[in-house]
Structures are given as structure tokens and as C-alpha cells.
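Sequence, please.
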């Protein structure tokens, strides 16, 4: 007769193995459902500029538009400073759980790697690209006292007075500064750069006649341009702008193939789940294509632009190469 104790032991072992296998199957089956629960809490959107500016308006407008689709609030966290480095560094080292994103722009992804010897973040390694957000068309403007009334006249005047014409920018290495460096190369003129700490003081001195010219994004100066307080000489876009239909493109003014934007998109910490990136991109694209969002952004001089994550990454790399070459050729540094 078979001993009872060993039989019960073997049977108990089999029962335990079966129970463990069933538990494992239940856990495996429930894993996708748990992953699909994102977002389970509000998202933090870091904006590396002060509240109230064009970049902040874009973020708040889009955040409000994507909140219903996500089902969770998107909270704006303004982290200005050091040409977006403060905000970019915070996000680069944030937990990649899908709850932290960043507005990354021309400075963050394209200019800073060439302007600074050391950055606390690496655009290629520390971020995952989600999608583009907007482009800020640049307009070449002159103060009312500047003698030239057209772009052609401005170029001729600068050629006759090399180095005597000065131009303002929100800071060395800013998109506005780089656009003017490119313009000087292509127009074959030499002017003197006067950098400021931000667009507001630069515009104030331009209005006062302290500086002659400036490439200005409409988010910072559309009202002054529309009212004629600043004279618009040309837009740095392939086609004329709907809000400034009478202002020719820089190409029409005699500098062919000239194009320059300040642009921005959304990124997240490297390692953010692919499913989260896909979902965020879908919500961004949907929001940026709505008439309400487009109208709001156009009202502040901004063009809504949507893309896939791959398209945004490719665009940022191309811009980094383009502006990086110019920065190195001109010897522009900020540290």
C-alpha cells in the first residue's frame, strides 16, 4: 500500500504549481490593461520661458485643447533662464513616466549645442521627440527714423555704410540674431550687433530709435508692426503672411532663397514609453488642426505646425546642422 504522506505532499506540490501558474497568467493578462491606464494623474508641461510670452501662450492654448482627450489636466510649469537650458535640464533628468514634457525650441535643440561648450543635456540622448507645435515667422523691421523705406533701400544703405547700421536681438545666438547673421551673408552687408536680454527691451530701444533694425517675431511685435510704429521691410518666409499681405518676402526684396523661423515642439525625457509618445502625438496633431487653436495662435502671430515624432526629430537635426555651421563660421559663443 502507497504511504499516504508522500502522496499528499506530491499532490500539494502539484496544486501549488497550478495555482502559481494561474496567478502568473492573471498578472500577464492584467498588465496591458494597467499600461493602458495612462494618464492616471495630471501632466506637467515645462515651458522654458516666462509666463505671458508667445511660447507660454502656445503651450497654454495647446494644453487646454489636449486636456479633454487625455482626461487629465495639463499643468504649465514656467522654468525660464539661460536660453531654455534651465527648463531643458529639468526635463532631461525627470522620471520618464509620461507625466513630464517640455517645449523645446530652436535654441534648445538646434543652437545651444553649438553655442555652449558644455550643456547639462544632450538633445540626441536625453529626449524623445513627440511632435512640432508652432513656427514664429520673423519679420525684418526698422525704426521709424531709419532712412530706408524698403528692403532694397536698406541693403543699399548698409552697403554704403559698412558697420554703421546696427541691429538688435533678444540675445546672442537667438533665432533673431542668427537670422540677421544669415541675412548679412546673403545680402553681402556688414552691420553691428546689439544684443539685449529679451525681446521686450530690444523692441523698446528699436521704437525709440536707439537701434536701426531687427528681425522680430510677430508674437513679440505684431501690434507695433500692424500700427506702423515699426516699419516692416520683409518677412523671412517663402510666401507673404496673411496678417501682413502688403509686406514682401525677403526674397522678393532681393535676397533669394532666404527663410528663417523661430520654431518649437514637444519633447519628453528619453525612455518615455512608446505608447505614451504615440498618444501624446495624436492629441497634439488633433488639437493643432482645430480651427479654434489655429485662430488663437494666428492672433498672436504664430503658425500652428503638426508632425509625427520622426518628422520633428529629422527637422530638429537638420536645423541643428544648418545653424550650427553658421554659428561656427561666425565664431558666435555665449560662454
Amino acid at each position: 500500500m502507497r504511504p499516504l504522506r508522500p502522496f499528499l505532499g506530491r499532490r500539494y506540490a502539484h496544486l501549488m504549481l497550478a495555482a502559481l501558474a494561474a496567478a502568473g497568467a492573471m498578472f500577464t493578462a492584467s498588465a496591458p490593461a494597467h499600461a493602458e491606464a495612462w494618464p492616471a494623474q495630471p501632466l506637467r508641461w515645462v515651458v522654458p520661458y516666462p509666463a505671458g510670452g508667445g511660447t507660454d501662450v502656445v503651450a497654454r492654448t495647446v494644453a487646454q485643447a489636449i486636456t479633454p482627450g487625455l482626461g487629465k489636466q495639463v499643468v504649465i510649469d514656467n522654468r525660464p533662464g539661460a536660453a531654455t537650458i534651465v527648463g531643458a535640464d529639468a526635463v532631461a533628468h525627470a522620471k520618464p513616466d509620461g507625466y513630464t514634457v517640455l517645449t523645446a525650441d530652436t535654441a534648445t535643440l538646434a543652437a545651444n549645442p553649438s553655442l555652449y561648450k558644455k550643456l547639462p543635456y544632450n538633445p540626441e540622448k536625453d529626449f524623445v521627440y513627440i511632435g512640432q507645435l508652432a513656427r514664429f515667422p520673423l519679420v525684418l523691421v526698422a525704426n521709424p527714423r531709419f532712412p530706408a523705406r524698403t528692403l532694397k533701400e536698406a541693403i543699399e544703405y548698409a552697403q554704403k555704410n559698412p558697420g554703421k547700421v546696427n541691429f538688435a536681438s533678444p540675445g546672442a545666438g537667438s533665432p533673431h540674431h542668427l537670422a540677421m547673421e544669415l541675412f548679412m551673408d546673403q545680402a553681402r552687408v556688414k552691420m553691428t550687433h546689439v544684443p539685449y536680454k529679451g525681446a521686450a527691451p530690444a523692441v523698446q530701444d528699436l521704437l525709440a530709435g536707439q537701434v536701426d533694425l531687427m528681425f522680430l517675431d510677430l508674437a513679440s511685435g505684431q501690434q507695433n508692426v500692424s500700427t506702423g510704429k515699426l516699419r516692416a521691410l520683409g518677412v523671412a518666409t517663402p510666401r507673404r503672411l496673411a496678417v501682413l499681405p502688403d509686406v514682401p518676402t525677403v526674397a522678393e526684396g532681393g535676397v533669394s532663397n532666404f527663410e528663417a523661423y523661430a520654431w518649437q515642439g514637444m519633447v519628453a525625457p528619453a525612455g518615455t514609453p512608446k505608447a505614451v509618445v504615440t498618444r501624446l502625438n495624436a492629441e497634439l496633431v488633433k488639437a493643432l488642426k482645430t480651427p479654434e487653436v489655429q485662430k488663437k495662435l494666428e492672433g498672436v502671430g504664430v503658425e500652428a505646425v503638426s508632425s509625427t515624432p520622426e518628422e520633428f526629430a529629422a527637422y530638429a537635426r537638420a536645423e541643428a546642422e544648418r545653424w550650427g555651421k553658421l554659428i561656427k563660421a561666425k565664431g558666435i559663443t555665449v560662454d
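The longest strand covers residues 127-142.
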